[in-house]
Amino acid sequence: MNNERVLQDDWSLINSLLPNGWREKAKELGALLRFRRFRSVDDLLKALLVHLVDGCSGRETALRIEELGIASISDVAFLKRLEKAECWLRWMSEQVMKKAVGQGSDVLQTSHLLYRVVDASNVKGPGKTSQSCRLHYALELPNLQCDEIKITDQKTGESFCNFTIKPGDLIMGDRGYAHARGVAHVVKNGGHVLVRTNLKLLSLRQEDGSNFPILSKAELLKDNEIGDWDVWIHYEYRKIKGRLCVIRKDPAARERARKKALRLRQKGHGKKGKIREDTLKASEYIFIFTTLDRTFTAGQVLEIYRSRWQVELVFKRLKSIIKIGNLHNKKPATARAWLHGKLLVAFMTEALIGKADSFSPSGGVTSRFGRQTQFMEGDQICFQMPKASVTGAFAA
């Protein structure tokens, strides 16, 4: 059995990926206060990994871990163990993630800035009435490493305020992050912003406080010409200076954008069948707001923003490979524990890829010295991919 080989023969390898003191943290964070059913902290983690890696139900997990000789426990009792392990799993996933980032970020940074792309994705719960979670994710470029995660309920929207900002960070986001409060949060903490916007989201102004005529300026541009204007954002008592970089889409892209705008309005986004002419005109352009100075040209600003697509690939692959898109339990605490556990699996898989470059153990982990690495021959994680970050697109 593949699971038995991974969990027994290669347990020392898995153990080497975990942070120092992970056993002691299990007791400190309430995951295993007494050794009932499980003989050790190692056995508890083995049981959790069977559930998380293979995507088993609670009942199937209970049967498998009994067959493997790990523990004899009911599915209800196991899910209670999972719920109690929430803080422990979160701590381990964060520590494994930070360890991976620390090994690669110094080499792969470009210029004097740390490029970070942020996004959020909804994770659905089982059944029609269950609550969902929202996963907020920060991806470091160009090494495609996750450097920060946050799990919230659906009421917490997309915002730069959900992330820790340090001096020298360049934070990139799509239109969902184009809000003055989030921009002010980044600037206040010494970071820079690069975010896509539209005619109204950021309420851009001129130096004298009057509204900036976004569309009027954009309409002056010819095909392939890039506009670059100084603009200001007012938030509370602060005035934040930035730049608006604009480019007109090519004819084919303009036509697709107009059709999309009309289609969304017909589906009920706004008054059905009605759409403002300036909204249609604005769909022909890409508007980027940034606080970067002009040591970066407008063309470079637009080119940097193109890299934001990498975070979209992260969520697609987290959901398709790690199966993180649908929660297995309606209970919020258990659902959060399951989600943190899935992230731990993703970060450990990323660490395994790094080890495969120089280490080829017998059993479930093998290395192909070339473009591809194959690992974890279980049902859910058995694939080949270029050597790159698992959490950062699972394959660049």
Q: Could you explain the architecture of this structure?
A:
The protein has two domains: 2-89 and 328-386, no CATH class; 105-315, Transposase Inhibitor Protein From Tn5, Chain A, domain 1 (Alpha-Beta Complex), CATH 3.90.350. The longest helix has 25 residues, at 332-356. It starts with a helix and ends in a 10-residue tail after the last strand. Strand 6 (226-235) and strand 7 form a beta hairpin. The protein has an eight-stranded mixed sheet. Strands 9-10 form a two-stranded antiparallel ribbon. The chain is elongated. It is α+β, with helices and mostly antiparallel strands and 396 residues long. The protein has helices at 2-9, 11-17, 22-28, 41-54, 58-67, 75-84, 86-108, 180-188, 214-218, 251-266, 277-282, 298-306, 309-320, 332-356, and strands at 114-123, 133-141, 145-153, 169-173, 192-197, 226-235, 238-248, 285-290, 372-375, 383-386.
- End-to-end Cα distance, whole Å, is 31 Å
The percent range for helix content is: 40-55%
Largest sheet: 8 strands, mixed
Shape: elongated
Alpha-beta content class: alpha+beta
Number of strands: 10
CATH topology of the largest domain: Transposase Inhibitor Protein From Tn5, Chain A, domain 1
Task: Assign the CATH class of the largest domain.
Answer: Alpha Beta
| CATH architecture title of the largest domain | Alpha-Beta Complex
Q: What is the string of helix and strand elements? A: HHHHHHHEEEEHEHEEHHEHHHEE
- Measured by DSSP, the beta-strand proportion falls in 15-25%
Q: Averaging pLDDT over every residue, what do you get?
A: 76
CATH H-level superfamily of the largest domain: Transposase Inhibitor Protein From Tn5, Chain A, domain 1
| Assembly context of the chains | single chain
User: How many domains make up the coordinates?
Assistant: 2
Q: What is the radius of gyration computed over CA atoms, rounded to a whole number of angstroms?
A: 24 Å
> Which blocks of ≥5 consecutive residues have pLDDT under 50?
103-110, 358-396
Counting DSSP H or I runs of 4 or more residues, the number of helices is 14
